[in-house]
Amino acid sequence: MSNNQGRQKSIKSGCLIAGAIVGVVAILGIAGIVYFVNRQLSDFDSRREIMCLRPELVVSDEHLRYEPGMDAAMWSKFTVRVKGIDEVFDTSRVDTSEFTQAGYDFNVDWIDDDRWDANKRMLIGGEDEVGGDFMRVGYVDNGDGTLTIYIFWFEV
Fold first, then answer.
1. What is the DSSP string of 12-62?
2. What totals of helices (H) and strands (E) does the chain contain, helices first?
3. What is the CA radius of gyration of the chain?
4. pLDDT (tens digit, 9 = 90+) per residue, 37-80?
5. Are 152 and 51 in contact (CB under 8 A)?
6. pTM to 2 decimals?
7. Which H or E run contains 72?
8. What backbone phi and psi angles, to 5 degrees, belong to 126?
């Protein structure tokens, strides 16, 4: 093998290695961006306004999923320490008297989320139109001074 052929082989090997490194970095970069965007879309505090929650409401064990698009949808489950459902929502925007139907059927069968167990619980709940969009609310009194709240919201 001549020096020229050896050099060409080294250049090809170097290009392959550099290409592989660039490919791995690109994949990791895209994965990081997807993770960041998904985390931002599913950030509970950034969606409190859409759910019409009182600003001072303290929540625990919050889970939220937001699906953007032409017909955006969001579902959330969280726990609050309150005396009643009227302490959860901004009642100037949400008529909490609508959330009184015992045995409320909150079955959104296409939600595939391990934390979403609304269809397995006996809920009190109802529906309301908020700002031109639609919101379903179900909740259960845990018997310890807390309520577990389920919200399904979607654009109309």
1. HHHHHHHHHHHHHHHHHHHHHHHHHHHHHHT-TGGGTTTTTB-TT--EEEE
2. 1, 6
3. 25
4. 444 456 889 889 989 999 999 999 999 998 888 888 999 999 99
5. no
6. 0.72
7. none
8. 175, -170
